[in-house]
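Letters spell out the chain; backbone shape is given numerically. Take this protein:
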Amino acid sequence: MRIWLDVITPKQARLMSSIARSVGEDYVITVKGYRESVDLLRRLGARFIEVGNYSPRDLMEKLLYYADRVKLLADLALSYEPDFLISLSSPEAVRVAYGLSIRSITMNDSPHSYHVGRLTLPLSWKVIHPKAIPKDDIVKLGASEDSLVPYDGVDEVAWVKEHLEDGVKAGRDFKVFFRPEESGASYMLGKGGFSLRLMRTVIECGAEVIVKPRYEEQARAIREIYGERVTMLEDTVDTIDLFKRVVMVVTGGGTMARESALLGTPSLCVFPLRTRLYVNDYLRDMGFPIWGTSSYEEAEKLVRIILRDPDSYVVDTRPLLRNLEDPREVVRRVLREAL
């Protein structure tokens, strides 16, 4: 059985490399040329092939890069002849798989990413999604009900739980990690974020700010405003290890908020869109230390409250994690049932 896995974002690099090791079959990982994703795959020791370019903003450039990557992936698929494609809603890879009659196993935990969902879910053989996301939200994007494979967990379990063998420690460095908004995503184009303003709040509370920008334009803006008052992470780092040592994580996206919450670190997802992040709410309701808001005022209030006594918000999440289903097991089950 030959398996093709495609990667676009850093989250997908962690998820797909983890799945590849789990299935233990003949596989190939392709990755779009986004620096952070490529660097992370290298750090993880994954075998991969870089295919295509990444454009964060320009719509015409995005379209042309899409078309070019479809052709390159089609050539690779024709040569490799995979039995299955596994991706987290990769538009180019799913289109190629559909065109070449390759069964596409598509994972999706972000129904708010409307355009990506519409381009991938209608063409997918199986759609694996956290059961926290209502079935209707997935079907509205074009997935057939027969394709749905819900599971009781979140994607991040696949690579986080192995980092909790020593438990969760209090008495951490008085530092807050920031990850700005995904300003290049289709659902975020033209939307503003709060990260820059919240960094000032953290500094006022006496904590050190560590920030990992997504794009160079974000890095320039942070340097212009804060200069040496913040620590900028220029290169790809092991954020999982970092999350176990800081007192709080503030992010404009969902993945790192869920990673840190699974590790027991208080996390705040400041999502500028007025849409529910079902998987975040699911973890919060289970007792993981994760908060979310689309309001700057509420975000600032939460930051100040948590930083008054951050150790009291740290949670030993090992008992909670035992109740979550690992998505790798779901993928293996789908593959077994297909044989």
